[in-house]
Amino acid sequence: MGDIEFFLDAFKDFIKKTAVVIGITRVDLCPTPTIKDHQRWLEEKKLNIPIFETDGRVGKDIIQLVRALLCRQDPAVVF
Question: φ and ψ at 52, to 5 degrees?
């Protein structure tokens, strides 16, 4: 979760102006921390950020991330 914390901190000013979603890759190779662990960590930090298991090679996974990001930007977006 150190990587997530690093990037959220590094881009915090940009995120405040826009939005963020998180895609976790390689969950098949490294089963811990789990998505639930990440969600718990985000809740402890009082961060309401969508988090997904993602395979960067799979188009539908990337589309899911982009759609989630667009919905965070504008909840009225319809697909």
Answer: -130, 150
**12/30 Cα distance (integer angstroms):** 27
Give the list of residues 6+ apart from residue 60 with CB closer than 8 angstroms, or none: none
What does the radius of gyration of the chain's CA atoms come to, in whole angstroms? 13
pLDDT in tens, 14-61: 999 999 999 999 988 888 899 999 999 999 999 999 999 999 999 999
What is the Cα–Cα distance from 6 to 28, expressed in whole angstroms? Answer: 23
Residue 36 structure tokens: 């639930």
- Map tokens 């667009």 to a residue: 70
CA 76 to each of CA 5, 23, 73: distance values in angstroms, whole numbers, following the listed order: 29, 22, 9
**Strand pairing partners for 24?**
53
